[in-house]
Amino acid sequence: MIGLDIGTYSIKAVSITLADGKAVLRGCNRVNRIPEEALHESVKKVISGDLFAVEPLAIAVSGPRVIVRFVEWPVMTEAELVSAARFEVENEASFDMQDAIIDCRIVSREAATNKIGVLIIAAAAAAVKTMVDEVTAAGRAVASIDVDSLALCNAFLRTSAGQKVTDKDTATALVNIGDTFVNMSIISRGIPFLARDTAGIGAELSGEIARRLGVAGSEAYKLKHSLPASPERVSELAGAMINKLAKEMKLSMGYFESQYSLPVEAIYVSGGSARLAGLTGSLAAALDVPVSVWDPFGALAVGDAGPFADAPGEFAVAVGLALGSANNA
């Protein structure tokens, strides 16, 4: 199974095989996107080689043209469920619901109250088609499509940290901090009760560093990941971005806690911008919740991340996509 995470700064691929019911990492790869290069050419590069020569291939979409909702409804028929799901999200969509892809799944049942917990996903068909077309242009076929925030859940719940909280009435936040988007999920008892995407801090921080210091984008990227050895001005800019992220997270956590009366007791961060020095400490202080960087390769029985062992968090979405594809195979 291959999970392909197509980000705006880089593209990550993870190849996983199943052996005796266990997921085993065969290999992973990352390619930074070149602005002048067509996206499908970058995709072709990241999945070149024997490790990525097999099907199926799973991708994901994220951002403002995707909606994820968890709702609790009375038990209903499948036809009623599909109709209710469309009605639930059509007033919130920033895209034309006449041209949307909607899916839903029952994820919990409460016999005492005769209610079901339903996970609803809606995505703009154009956004999905764009991603599929790029993969097709790279000479490959797409077997499944997910969303980034739920792929995070797939990966995390297979790790030892995730398994410890699956059966407990506690809430855990998963935050993937990318270049353009931040994917946030809050899970309890293995169910994603909240999943939303907000603006990322990676690209904005790189842009500010490049502008303030008069350096190239590639140099700005290096500077933000070399804190605190970077110039003091860079540290100040990073601190401002982290505070901005903390405010967004606090809003999401506050909404969740008011809806479900469950406090978020731990936060796990991943993604390229999770490597910012001081990020976990700053977020923990601002939110008064323990924050850790987690290793999605811990979800796999055996494997070697090779040259990417120093940045496993960047592959969280790709790992979740491959595991989700394996579960559906």
Describe the protein in words.
The protein has 329 residues and is an alpha/beta fold. It has a domain at 164-294: ATPase, nucleotide binding domain (Nucleotidyltransferase, domain 5, 2-Layer Sandwich), CATH 3.30.420.40. 36% of the residues lie in helices and 30% in strands. The protein is built from 10 helices and 13 strands. It has helices at residues 39-46, 78-90, 125-137, 148-156, 160-165, 202-213, 217-224, 232-260, 279-287, 316-328; strands at residues 2-6, 10-19, 22-32, 57-61, 66-74, 100-110, 115-124, 144-147, 171-177, 181-188, 191-199, 264-270, 291-293. The protein has a 5-stranded mixed β-sheet with strand order 3-2-1-4-8. A 5-stranded mixed β-sheet has the order 11-10-9-12-13, sandwiched between helices. A 3-stranded antiparallel β-sheet has the order 5-7-6. Strand 1 (2-6) and strand 2 form a beta hairpin. Helix 4 (148-156) packs across helix 10 (316-328) and helix 6 (202-213) runs antiparallel to helix 8 (232-260). The longest helix has 29 residues, at 232-260. The radius of gyration is 20 Å and the shape is globular. The N and C termini lie close together (9 Å). The mean pLDDT is 88.
